[in-house]
Amino acid sequence: MKKSLMLLIGAALLGGCTGNKVTIEGEFAACPEEGVVLESAMANGAIVADTIKTNTNGEFRLKATLPEGESTFYTLRCAERTIPLILSKGEKVVVKSVPGLINGYTVSGSPESELVREVRNLLGLGVAKLDSLTTIYNQTTSKTLQQAINKEYSTTFLDIKRKQIEFIVRNSGSLAAIYALNQRIPGDGVLFSGQHDIVYFRLVAEEVEKNYPSSPYLAGLKAAIDNYDRQVEFNNMINDALAATPANFPEITLPDMYGKKQSLTELQEGKVVLLYFWTIGDENASFRNAELKELYAKYHEKGFEIYQVSVDTSKPAWVEIVQMQKLPWVSVCDFKGGNSPAVQLYGIQSVPQNFLLDKEGNIVARNAYGDDLAGELKRLLK
After folding, report:
1. Residues β-bridged to residue 362
2. What is the pLDDT of residues 299-310, one digit of tens each?
3. Which fold has domain 246-380?
């Protein structure tokens, strides 16, 4: 699991120093006399650098002093519009926000900010297609069509990632590459969250250090790499154990929607249990849950249980989905997202992921879905 960019970069930036100033001017079209806010991305949250109101034409002019004179991530806000920037000393940046443009704005006078816009454009085009596929998926009840849409969705997702990788490799020494590493797909989480994505984090860290040796963002980037290494080590340990002999599962005790503590150990006693990590934001969650409900109905009386752990942070939203989908098994969540002890204990980097436990409490399979999961259940519950 990945944290937001603000948490990932995680290095303290000291404000109020004597760093060089930058100016940002431009226009938020159709936003006359609205407040414009410039915020820097700090390790402990967003810090306001300057505020001003647009004139009757939506024009504005802001100034900021870079902490320690270092290139810094900023967000420019006006009403509901946001523009990400990476500002460097001495720059005179011109921004124009016009609804209807790709990502709604143009920027000049800041090379890093122009690269950030390129990242956003690449993502925006792909996400628009994903949104269209999701709409079609939700409007049909045909499983054949849904499976075809899922396949096209996966192909589009991989194409988005491929283009982001090309950008990162081409601009690995830029701070915009850090921004690219933290792009999110609505409903699918962070784009670079797989075990093999660490190679891109290492590449960017090495190249950024050459161009920005004193950048406070380096420490956070290296910390993210260390976190990946720990997660990979855990995953390798589990996989090695599965390859040799079944591995016992680490205990989890989390609250259900009523606040009652539900223990994985108590549920597992003498049962075959699927430990399933998921999020309601997964566009395919309803489809996967529907498949699980069929297996649950078939094998529950024979000793099959499901312990479903949500990595969401909003209790109302999670409860609504659990109730709406009428999930018959144990559903739990502590609303800590990627910081959940359960997520860290099992080395979860992305969801969905699952672990299948046999009647003796051994992990006998990982990430088994569809026919593979059905086959395992048939073998274990015969």
Report:
1. 248
2. 999 999 999 999
3. Glutaredoxin (3.40.30)
